[in-house]
Design goal:
The protein has helices spanning 2-26, 30-37, 54-61, 72-83, 93-107, 110-122, 170-180, 194-200, 240-244, 328-348, 356-368, 370-381, and strands at residues 304-306, 313-317, 320-325. The protein has 385 residues and is mostly helical. Among the domains are: 54-200, no CATH class; 225-234 and 279-385, no CATH class. The radius of gyration is 32 Å and the shape is elongated. Residues 1-32 form the signal peptide. Residues 210-252, 267-287 are annotated as: Disordered. Residues 278-287 have a biased composition (Polar residues). Residues 210-228 have a biased composition (Low complexity).
């Protein structure tokens, strides 16, 4: 009796399982049916837009002869990626591109730097196609940017899915944008922001009132001092200006340099209590510790002023701060090298009759006099004259 009941129960369970299996095979689930019948909007994934190959060209500028080993171009390349994200300020790229141009001019490879910077201002910036009224490409609306004349009137490319709205398609506009990178025509867009230039070119798919001046541009921390340019004029290094003919008269140490000190306080770090020194304006009597008096071709060594404070020695070029230093020896060396660059530029520009070898000899004499300048600096630091 017990065995018969167990057998009957087992048969019932098997029959129930078979019925469930039959229902699963013959009838699709409600959720599967809903998914299959729903219209799905797809967007093609596009990779690499935030890391264009031109960023490798930016990094390569830091390896050129004359470029200082401060890693600044690597910093710029890393920071530039963030300016291409959908949520980034559309004006944020321009201060970085301007800095590439400025450093190229300062360190003797202006042509290469300008070529790279022009590509930077022309690359595509992402946008979010699901951002409602913001689901359009955004462009900088500050007519003062970019500051470099060589970067003016260049139109940034746009995402291929954008365009229309009564204006050019993305393909039509991008063809125009690429063309603007090949010629310098800054006079054709005077007083216009990039956004205004885009609209004038016939592209209408833009975010309304986009891109005021950046309030927090994607700017990497600036070095506390501008490093000494490796002298491209000295013989035996890279041929200087004598051999390549590409940077004739471009490596000048009289460029105005903006000095920025960025302090990041870690856990437990004390905040600085003393502000950076304000730049002095020239060789005031009693403060200049540069004792070398040679002035070949009318180019004396720039003054090295003792101003006290946390970085007490300042090199002044053309009435502007060129660098501030902790040690007198480093400041005096900078002064000598600036003089050498100015001397060599006079020769290479054929404004004077002479040779870079004469500038080299004077530079050796200037460096030999550093010890005398250090002695003068030590007296000032001790309060004597």
């Amino acid at each position: 009796m017990t065995s018969s009941r167990a057998s009957t129960k087992k048969s019932s369970i098997i029959a129930l399982l078979a019925l469930v299996a039959l229902l699963l095979v013959s009838t699709p689930t409600t959720s599967a049916t809903a998914i299959a019948s729903r219209d799905v909007q797809l967007f093609k994934r596009r990779f690499g837009q935030e890391n264009p190959t031109v960023l490798n060209d930016v990094r390569a500028l830091g390896r050129l002869p004359g470029s200082p080993p401060d890693g600044r171009f690597d910093q710029i390349a890393g920071a530039f990626i963030g300016t291409l994200l959908a949520a980034a300020d559309p004006c944020a790229r321009y201060p970085l591109a301007d800095e590439v141009v400025e450093r190229g001019k300062m360190f003797g490879f202006a042509d290469q730097a300008i070529k790279v910077a022009r590509q930077l201002v022309g690359v595509e910036k992402n946008f979010n196609p699901f951002a409602g009224d913001k689901a359009h490409p955004a462009f900088c609306n500050d007519p003062a940017l970019p500051k470099s004349e060589e970067l003016r009137c260049i139109l940034p490319q746009v995402d291929p899915v954008s365009g229309g709205n009564g204006g050019l398609s993305a393909a039509e506009f991008n063809a125009k944008a690429v063309a603007t990178m090949t010629v310098q025509n800054a006079n054709k867009c005077a007083g216009m922001s990039v956004r205004q230039q885009v609209l004038a070119a016939g592209f209408k798919d833009v975010v309304s009132n986009a891109g005021a001046a950046p309030t927090n541009p994607q700017q990497p921390p600036a070095a506390t001092t501008t490093p000494t340019p490796e002298d491209p004029n000295k013989g035996g290094k890279n041929g200087g200006n004598k051999g390549n003919g590409n940077n004739d008269g471009q490596c000048t140490a009289t460029a105005t340099v903006t000095m920025t000190v960025t302090v990041t306080a870690g856990s437990g770090a004390a905040a600085p209590t003393e502000a950076p020194n304000a730049p002095s304006t020239g060789g005031s009597s009693g403060s200049n510790v540069q004792t070398f008096t040679g002035a070949l071709f009318g180019k004396p060594a720039p003054p090295v002023n003792f101003v006290g404070g946390t970085r007490p020695f300042q090199v002044i070029v053309g009435g502007k701060l060129n660098g501030d230093f902790l040690q007198a020896g480093a400041a005096l060396g900078r002064s000598c090298d600036v003089q050498h660059n100015q001397c060599a530029n006079e020769v290479n520009s054929q404004r004077v009759k002479g040779s870079v070898g004469q500038c080299d000899q004077q530079n050796n004499e200037c460096h030999a006099a550093i010890a005398q300048g250090q002695a003068s600096a030590a007296k000032l630091q001790q309060g004597g004259k």
